[in-house]
Write a structure and sequence with these properties.
Number of domains: 2
Distance between the termini: 32 Å
Radius of gyration: 19 Å
Shape: elongated
Order of helices and strands: HHHEHE
Strand order of the largest sheet: 1-2
Strand content: 5-15%
Largest sheet: 2 strands, parallel
Length: 103
Amino acid sequence: MDFIDPKTQYQRYKPDIDRRIQAVLDYGQYILGPEMVELEAALARYVGIKHCLTVASGTDSLEIASRALGIGPGDEVITVPFTWISSTEVIFLIGARPVFVDI
């Protein structure tokens, strides 16, 4: 059973998608371009917040959130051992110590 149909969705918006992709290819700014600023502003408006920050990965988002909470060297972070490695990697990256608990 198909829950989504990306091909039909793409066909519906194909002219706009293709035009926007071509614009990026034409000016060659693939990272931190105006589309990113536009996306962040649109997402912030959509959820009713002042700021929005897009990231490259879930690992980046975990690091940013942890640092925003002030977690760092000397802190312990309770987590589960049955998880993807990036969950624990971020704890080490910010200088904290993971404390594994059974789920």
